[in-house]
Structure formats: structure tokens, C-alpha cells
């Protein structure tokens, strides 16, 4: 018999009855029934109930074993009686009658419990992540992540992609988020950077003659944490294709994503390819953002003209100053109590708006503060434009175009939640396309790149030479699922002449471009194919499939919101010797002196 186990804790079934076996794992839970002690033994494969009689020599050994001690148990597989069968367990038709026990590792008193559903703070969970990962939910999330990555690899290989690994130590990029810098010991005063993404390398792979590349790429960005963004590092399905149009990229990656989500959907519906394509301007208009959740059925409409020159002075005056009015429908809400509308009005104020105007379309006529100050024809025009009927209500956002769109998007989400309209058990994909190539900085008046400066402008060089830059769109696209942006992508600008001109419009000289992006630009001068790609985020894909609201729940050893690894205590100080080897002297901020008695203390933020 094997020294530790003949079977895993999830393997034993009724057909093993009568066999002598050995299993090993962690003591999950113990139940003392007087003359009988029941011990649930757990490993990553499952859980087996073990039972020992008080008269057995091994009784006291198991009785003394603390939860999470690691033990090896030998015994005979016994069928459970009909009334004790546990259908919730794969091993629930049997139990193990214990004959021998070996304590492999005794556990100390636990700082957090593994068994049960008790909640713990994020600080406790991350400090003792090795215990947190033993819990069933976390184990399932991390195993799901592994299976997703394995499935992605198979699907990409089947689609003709070749996997390469690009460098981790590379040059600092002046664009995008902050770099993580790595000092060079043998080149004093110089630094490597960890890659924010393999963007330039994957484009260089295309210039090197490889048609289809991918990797599960680690990316490093020194940026703040969010629920859907881990600080420090994340992983993405990075891919690039040569001799392709935007349509080719979509047709290639859509089956990969749809198939992946179907594989792990657990019965939830998944959008079938081809995915709907929504222009950026339309998305901002209809949904109030560029990552719309299509499970939400509400559609925002523009009703500016209905208020222009109207007797509702607040909106009419703002429209004359360049504002727009967006209408957000609230179907079936006209007969909600006044307190419901007041609550939403207060929510709007808490989110920086002056309030939230509305009209109720009741059976006996329009009601609400705006309806009282607007003539009937205009109210009827709003009702028609927003596709409303009696029994519905409509809310309004009035501001300059961008803030009006963003606030209308927030209202759309809030109203959907309030009315319980969100479609359940479905993954809805879409592409956001036709992003603007340039935008004007409101503070400086300078024309800047809106998103990725390496995207090919629609219309190429002719558009850059003849069109107003603010009217030029890029061959850039985002893939969105259930309101979560999985990735950005683009057909790349592979022509040096077009690249120089695009950067010139954004205020860069040719020398600037060569200094910043010389490696990739030089490669393009020796023949580069048209190419494009994208990079869906692995962490966000798993987060959606696991139905987790926070990305840290699907990362095995994540940092906290302050970009700290509480388990390994990073970041941390290093020795003076290490700093000397790297030719580094620290210039640390001076600690703030505490206020003296009688002096005013700074106000708390």
C-alpha cells in the first residue's frame, strides 16, 4: 500500500465497499457523537467521511487532531445506511471505517476557519491566503481559472496560432500607465521596465514573418486598484494576426470566446457569433458608456429639441449654452410612490448632479414637476421619442454632451436595478467599434490621441491630410461582455509615413517618435505586413464565469487595494548593500511632524 494514499478524498464510491484503502488530506470537520467520532477528510479532489469507534486504539489520535491537521487514514470502505446517504457529496454513499491513522503535520490554532461560511476581512484573507485557498469557493475559482487557461490554449492552437513568450525585462514606455522600473546593476543609472503589455513585441513578431501569435501574457502596470482591475499585475490572452482586416480579427476570436464561455457557462446562455457591433458614438448615446451591459433593456434617447426654447427654463437655458438632454425610460414605474422618485433624486445629488427630473405618464395624463412646466405637445414628443406608453416614466440628464451621456448611463443602470429588469443567466457580447482617433484637451486646446496611438486611422494617409482630425475614426475596437470590457484591440498602423503624420497631428515631431518608438518604427521601415489583434483579460473572463464581483477572488495570490502583498510582505525595504550594488540612493519623503498641543490639526478628508 502507498505510504500516503491509495485514493483521493473524492474518489471512493459504493463499488469500493469492502476494500481496504488509504486516503490523506486535511481534517476539515469533526463531529463527536459519544461512542463514535466522525471526521471529514478533505483534499483538492473532494471530501470523505471517516468514522472511528471510541474503543479503537486510534480514537484518541483523531480526537486530539486539530482542524486542518494533515493526516493519512487507513480503513475499510463501508456503505452508508439509506438514511445517512449524503447526495450532496460525490462520496456520500460510503464512509471509511478507520483502522490506522498517521499524523503527517499538526496544525496550530487557526487564525481563520476553513470549514463553514464565516466571513473574514480582506486583510485576514490575504495575510493567510494559503488558508483562504483551502475553502471550497476559492478552490473552485482557482481551478476554474486553470481550466479556462487550458481551454484558451487549445482553442488558439486549433485556430492556427503559435505561442511565443515575449521579454519581461524591457524598455520603459512613456505612454499609458506608470511603469514598474527595475534598476540595472551593470548599467549604472539605467532601468529596465516590466511590460505594461507585449504591444510592441507582438507587432515586431508580425514584421518577423509569423502570421499568428498568442501567449497568456503577464502585464505590469503601476495603477490604482478597482473591483475589476488588480494593481500591479494581470494576465491577458494576447494575440496578433498578419494580413488581416478588422472583420478577420472578429471572425477569428469570436468562436474562441463564445466557445470558451459555453464550455464553462453551467447552463447560462451565450451570445452566438457574429457579435453585434456598436459604433462608439452610438454606444455613448444609447447606453451612456463605451462598455454597455446589453442585459439591461433600457435605451437612452436624445430629447434636446423637445426642450429647446421651452418654458422649462432650467433645461432651455442650458441648451442655449451647448447642453443636451438625455431621456432614460423607466417602464411600468408611473404609479410608484413619490418616495421612490425622491430616493432617486437624492441618489442623483449624491452622485454630483443637481437632481433628477422626471415625467410620469399616468393613465389620466402626464405628471411630475417637469410635466407641469412643459406644454403638452413637447411632453407628447418626449413620450414618442423615448418609446414610452401610459404607465411608464422617464428621467432626464441635462449637461454638456459627454457628462450628460455618462450620467445618463449611471441612471440607466440604477433604474434597471431598481425595477429588476436585468436579464439573468446570460452572457451578452458586443464589439464597440469606430473609436475617434483624436480628441481635444479641454484644458490645453491641444489635439491628442483618444486611445491607442498605434491604431490605423480609417482612411489612412488621405484622411490625415484632408479631414478635420476630430472627425477621423480609428480601426480600434473593444470586446465587451455584460458591461465588462474584456480588451481593447486595433488594426495597427504599420506604415512609418502614416505614423509620423498621425503623431505630428498630436504634437510630436519625427524626432520625438523615433526617440520613443525607434525599435518598432525601424522594423516597419524594412517591410511590415498589415496586422491587428487584441488581448482579452484572463482575470476578467474568469471573474465573469465565476460570477465574482471582485477580481481578487479569481487570482491565487493577489495584492490588496494598496498594492501590498500581505502574505509575502511586499513591497519591503532592501539592504544598504543591495542599494549600493544598484547604484541607488534613496530620497524618501520626510515624515509629517505631529501637530503640537494647541495647534490646529489638519482636517480629515
Please tag this protein with its features.
disordered C terminus; 17 helices; eight-stranded mixed beta sheet; 605 residues; five-stranded mixed β-barrel; alpha+beta
Topology:
Blueprint: E1 20-32, E2 36-43, E3 46-53, H1 59-64, E4 70-79, E5 94-105, H2 122-127, H3 129-132, H4 136-158, E6 162-163, E7 181-183, E8 191-193, H5 199-207, E9 212-221, E10 232-242, H6 246-263, E11 269-270, E12 276-279, H7 280-287, E13 301-302, H8 304-307, H9 313-320, E14 324-330, H10 338-350, E15 358-362, E16 365-367, H11 376-385, E17 393-399, H12 401-419, E18 426-427, E19 429-433, E20 438-440, E21 447-449, H13 460-466, E22 476-481, E23 484-491, H14 496-505, H15 510-524, E24 531-534, H16 538-545, H17 576-581
Parallel strand pairs: 3-5, 6-9, 11-18, 12-19
Antiparallel strand pairs: 1-2, 1-4, 2-3, 4-5, 7-8, 9-10, 10-24, 13-14, 14-17, 15-16, 15-17, 19-22, 20-21, 22-23, 23-24
Helix pairs in contact: 7-12, 13-14, 14-15
